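Progress note, sequence design subtask.
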């Protein structure tokens, strides 16, 4: 099990590279990823038969290429993510070892996604019964996986809970027989089952998931050769949080898998589908402090990054460690501050709790022009970026072997308006 990192309110470098130099070279705001952290997290999960990266967490093609080079396959939830996987070097179809390098996992087919699935022979993880019929109309006799909703879920926010009757995700566990009948009608074989109930998985809920998976496999029958543990592995965003015990996590799934193998009479591959776990801790959003002002009892550090860059705090009240990059080595007293961005929204606050309640953070006294880092921002950071207030998308930088490399150019103002047209 990995050891939680320490959270300091002051820092000078990322992976040994000066933050000030990164900011001066690439500008701010900028996402900066430490490639070594991603590789470490991949190694944490080597007990599983297959690691399938949920690229929705951080889908830059350089990140996809990095994980591919370390034996990780990929999940795609849209036509765009299929294109990204192909650009990063993944192939459709199945390898000589029987592995699908790309799996399309979604609750619907849009027209583009269905065309790409057919064109590139991409395996489908169906999240709705209707998808079976729609795939069968184009590719009868296909093999599929079912994403199942076991009737319960888990997550630090209702918005990240992907199980239970309030969730749109997956096929309701009571509809397995209906799905079997649909599949049989078109000669489609259900070869895999996938179950993901949300973020922040703990061992108590995991035992329930393993039991639900066993029941589902028994209902589908011995055509199942792969089960997926889904994702949701927690990472610590503050000192009060911790990792899940990965040895116990794997042991629960492995025990369930072995019992199923004994019952079904053949081997069953055990996949895991991490997204946040691989990407979150690698990423940092580097931003510049542009104004410091007092509003009543609150002191505000206003930076040039907003929720257009990092939406998790405004969406979920998510906590991110924050550090100040001091411009000199003089001792700094810590003060209670609110950190906000430049957008025309009162909700553009990085130090807030779920429900929009503004909170303070104890940070070193800073000056305008110094840098501030929002840490653990590699997952659901850049991928959720927007052009709100006509702000260009941030640059992305990856540090590999001590060298920072630009992996996404900052969006230009021409890019911002590309495709728009004046009326005749």
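Output:
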């Amino acid at each position: 099990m990995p050891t939680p990192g320490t959270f300091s309110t002051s820092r000078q470098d990322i992976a040994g590279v000066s933050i000030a130099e990164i900011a001066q070279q690439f500008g701010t705001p900028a996402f900066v990823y430490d490639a070594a952290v991603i590789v470490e997290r991949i190694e944490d999960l080597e007990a599983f038969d297959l690691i399938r990266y949920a690229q929705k967490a951080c889908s830059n093609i350089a990140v996809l290429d990095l994980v591919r080079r370390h034996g990780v396959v990929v999940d795609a939830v849209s036509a765009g993510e299929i294109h990204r996987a192909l650009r990063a070097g993944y192939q459709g179809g199945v390898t000589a070892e029987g592995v699908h390098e790309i799996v399309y996992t979604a609750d619907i087919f849009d027209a583009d996604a269905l065309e790409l699935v057919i064109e590139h022979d991409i395996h489908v993880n169906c999240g709705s019964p209707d998808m079976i019929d729609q795939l069968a109309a184009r590719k009868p006799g296909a093999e599929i996986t079912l994403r199942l909703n076991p009737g319960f879920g888990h997550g630090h926010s209702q918005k990240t809970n992907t199980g239970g009757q309030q969730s749109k995700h997956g096929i309701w566990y009571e509809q397995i027989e209906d799905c079997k009948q649909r599949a049989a009608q078109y000669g489609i074989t259900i070869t895999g089952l996938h179950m993901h109930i949300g973020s922040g998985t703990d061992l108590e809920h995991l035992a329930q998931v393993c039991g639900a998976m066993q029941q589902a496999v028994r209902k589908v029958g011995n055509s199942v050769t792969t089960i997926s543990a889904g994702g949701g592995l927690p990472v610590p965003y503050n000192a009060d949080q911790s990792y899940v015990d990965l040895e116990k996590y794997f042991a629960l799934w492995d025990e369930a898998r072995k019992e199923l193998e004994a019952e079904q009479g053949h081997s069953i591959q055990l996949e895991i589908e991490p997204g946040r776990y691989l990407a979150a801790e690698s990423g940092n959003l580097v931003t510049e402090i542009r104004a410091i002002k007092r509003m009543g009892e609150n002191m505000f550090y206003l930076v040039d990054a907003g929720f257009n860059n990092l939406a998790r705090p405004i969406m979920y009240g998510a906590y991110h460690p924050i550090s100040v990059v001091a411009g000199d080595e003089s001792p700094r007293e810590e003060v209670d501050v609110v950190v906000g961005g430049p957008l025309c929204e009162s909700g553009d606050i990085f130090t807030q709790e779920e429900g929009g309640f503004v909170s303070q953070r104890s940070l070193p006294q800073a000056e305008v022009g110094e840098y501030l880092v929002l840490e653990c921002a590699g997952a659901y950071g850049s991928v959720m970026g927007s052009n709100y207030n006509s702000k260009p998308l941030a640059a992305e930088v990856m540090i590999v072997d001590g060298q920072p490399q630009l992996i996404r150019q900052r969006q230009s103002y021409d890019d911002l308006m590309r495709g728009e047209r004046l009326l005749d």
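DSSP finds twelve helices and 22 strands in the chain. Work on this subtask will continue into the next period as scheduled.
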